[in-house]
TrEMBL record:
Pathway: Amino-acid biosynthesis; L-threonine biosynthesis; L-threonine from L-aspartate: step 3/5; Amino-acid biosynthesis; L-methionine biosynthesis via de novo pathway; L-homoserine from L-aspartate: step 3/3
Location of the ACT domain: 358-443
First-level EC class: oxidoreductase
Active-site residues, as the UniProt record annotates them: K205 (proton donor)
Family: Belongs to the homoserine dehydrogenase family.
Stored InterPro entries: ACT-like_dom_sf, ACT_dom, Asp/hSer_DH_NAD-bd, HDH, HDH_cat, HDH_CS, NAD(P)-bd_dom_sf
Official protein name in the record: Homoserine dehydrogenase
GO molecular function, one term: homoserine dehydrogenase activity
Residues at which L-homoserine binds: E190
Binding-site positions, NADP(+): L9, G10, I11, G12, T13, V14, G15, A16
Binding residue positions for NADPH: K105
SUPFAM superfamilies (UniProt xref): ACT-like, Glyceraldehyde-3-phosphate dehydrogenase-like, C-terminal domain, NAD(P)-binding Rossmann-fold domains
EC numbers, comma separated: 1.1.1.3
Length: 448
């Protein structure tokens, strides 16, 4: 069989990793693919740096547009990132009948409907294993290994940068900005790191997983997104004292009313395996009705772990190239021409999400405060699961005068309730004169 010819667009962190792993493991990869895989041309705005990485045997150009239309290229690997030129290049490659491999979750979470429809029309593959949880083969697991299941929920630590920040802050007491800088130097962070710390990157990934798991369209605009920038150290400590770890979690859950799609800091029981996932590592838990709970763990970011997924997609394509498109695994796991009997379930607004909560209120240390707060919760039908009272040790955002009175931290874990109901109760508690400063609220998932 002839070698498959690749156009590699963007040779930064992931592109360089892909080039190096392909070179290092060339023979083995070719034997598995059943044919040779040649990087025929590399396009990067920084052609000089690209040349240093690939040497003299590979053609280097600076104009990526010149690659996507070339008839001698079979597959385009898009590793530039972003929504702009990346979208244009991917659509142009599809239009000229080329298969595409991309690690670009932002692009697919926002423009996936358009891109996957264009690929289906042309009978080409758009493969994106590297886009979700880097080297962990979670797309393959969900689309193929778990195909028999009605998936109940998917929950994951799917942003390496934020997990790295939370781990370093907790273990070494390091400052947020210093750890973020380290994550950027290690090549984990997005070009715009607010995508990481504000939860946007994790939301891109859980959006893709929700589409694969539940057969719903890719709907990033419906995802609830909350990052880690408002997390305080005392809450990380109190959570530990209650037997929980705080992680930035992406959650996609099937309910009778619709699909929950959300990213936020979350208390997870410390006894769950996923609670021990530290540093830039990722983990995804999938619960299926037949298989039960399954866990996937590995490096979710970085040059070679991500390259591992890019090359796995390449090999899939090399094995399938020339075959009838009906042999392809559908991009989002469900065949385009097999419509469901009912319309796909809606993504629920956040106030209709049902979960449990951690709340911390800094209160005046006086009789009756706890009883007032718990009775406001009880009035709303919210039952308390656990309580903790701790001497306040870090004065935060109180008005003058409040800081001088005796105060204490009240920490309450609730049982499950509707978010809208919880918000209304929280508003009433916040207005109590004995509550000093803003109440902290963090969602909690048992993941059982
Ligand atoms: N870094 C990771 O750990 C990781 C993991 C999974 C997915 N991703 C995704 O992979 C993609 C690439 O990420 P990265 O970390 O390698 O980024 P990077 O910034 O290191 O690399 C991007 C490369 O693209 C080049 N480039 C930019 N604009 C270009 C253009 N118009 N034409 C040609 N080249 C251009 C840049 O010069 C650079 O070399 C992104 O979509 C990212 O979200 C990254
Ligand atoms: N910025 C991403 C890269 C991997 O998708 C992360 O930190 O997880
Ligand atoms: Na992956």
């Amino acid at each position: 069989m002839t070698n498959i010819r690749i156009g590699l667009l963007g040779i930064g962190t992931v592109g360089a990793g892909t080039f190096q792993v392909l070179k290092r493991n060339q023979q083995e990869i070719s034997r598995r693919a059943g044919r040779g895989i040649d990087i025929a041309v590399v396009a990067d705005l920084n052609a000089e740096r690209a040349r240093q990485i690939v040497g003299d045997d590979v053609e280097v150009v600076s104009d990526a547009r010149s690659v996507v239309a070339r008839p001698d290229i079979d597959v385009v690997i898009e590793l530039i990132g972003g929504y702009g030129i990346a979208r244009e290049l991917v659509l142009a490659a599809i239009e000229s009948g080329k298969h595409v491999v991309t690690a670009n979750k932002a692009l697919l979470a926002v423009h996936g409907t358009e891109i996957f429809a264009a690929a289906a029309r042309k009978g080409v593959i758009v493969a994106y294993e590297a886009a979700v949880a880097g080297g962990i083969p979670i797309v393959k697991a969900l689309r193929e290994g778990l195909v028999a299941n009605r998936v109940q929920w998917v929950a994951g630590i799917i942003n390496g940068t934020t997990n790295f920040i939370l781990s370093e802050m907790r273990d070494k007491g390091l400052d947020f900005q210093a750890v973020l800088k380290q994550a950027q130097q290690l090549g984990y962070a997005e070009a715009d790191p607010t995508f990481d710390i504000e939860g946007i990157d994790a939301a891109h990934k859980i959006t893709l997983l929700s589409a694969i798991a539940f057969g719903i369209p890719v709907q990033f605009d419906k995802a609830y997104v909350e990052g880690i920038t408002a997390l305080h150290r005392p809450d990380i400590r109190y959570a530990e004292q209650l037997g929980y770890r705080i992680k930035l979690l992406g959650v996609a859950k099937r309910t009778e009313r619709g699909v929950e799609l959300r990213v936020h800091p979350t208390l997870i029981p410390a006894k769950r395996l996923i609670a021990s996932v530290e540093g830039a590592m990722n983990a995804v838990v999938v619960k299926g009705d037949a298989v039960g709970t399954t866990l996937y763990y590995g490096q979710g970011a970085g040059a070679e772990p991500t390259a591992s997924a890019v090359i796995a997609d390449l090999v899939d394509i090399a094995r399938l190239q020339g075959a009838d498109a009906s042999h392809q695994v559908p991009a989002l796991a469900y065949h385009h021409d097999c419509q469901p009997a009912e319309a796909p379930p809606p993504v629920l607004p956040m106030e209709d999400v049902v979960t449990s909560y951690y709340l911390r209120a800094r209160v005046a240390d006086q009789a009756g405060v706890l009883a007032t707060i718990t009775s406001l919760l009880a009035d709303a039908g919210i039952s308390v699961d656990a309580l903790l009272q701790r001497e306040a040790d870090e004065v935060t955002d109180f008005s003058e005068g409040q800081a001088s009175q005796p105060q204490t931290d009240l920490i309450i874990l609730t049982h499950e309730t509707r978010e809208g109901t919880f918000n209304a109760a929280l508003e009433k508690i916040q207005q109590l004169p004995s509550v000093l400063g803003s109440i902290v609220r963090i969602r909690k998932e048992e993941l059982d």
